[in-house]
Specification:
The protein has 136 residues and is mainly alpha-helical. The chain has a single domain, classed as Glycoprotein, Type 4 Pilin, CATH 3.30.700.10. The protein has a two-stranded antiparallel sheet. The chain is elongated and about 95 Å long.
Amino acid sequence: MKNRQSAFTLLEIMLVVAIIGVLLAAAIYKMAPTLDVAKGTRTRADIQMIRTMLLSYNAANGFYPTTEQGLGALVMRPSSEPAPTSWRRLMDDVPKDAWGMVYVYRYPGRKNVGGYDLFSAGPDRIPDTADDDWGN
């Protein structure tokens, strides 16, 4: 009686690896829009949270942090004028947007005259362009 061993050939293994690669590429391609939706949702949530912290800062001190003090005024007591009279730490750190950049904060605002501007520079990471995300 002959002793026969069964095994896959190199060609069969490479064919299976190629098929798996094509399936993975198709799955990644199909999930890319979902990732963009998730980034937008995260940006809106971050901006809403920062707005809430800015309202708390304004309620405690009677004014918003200046552009120069920035969102860092929610984390560390500002040393520049106007100095807050009733400062308290409102955030552990300032979050970054979904593209790894700090949120753009301006007070007084350019778009929201009399208020502040708060937005993400978006995928191109350049403020004041068409892809900016204002969290609306």
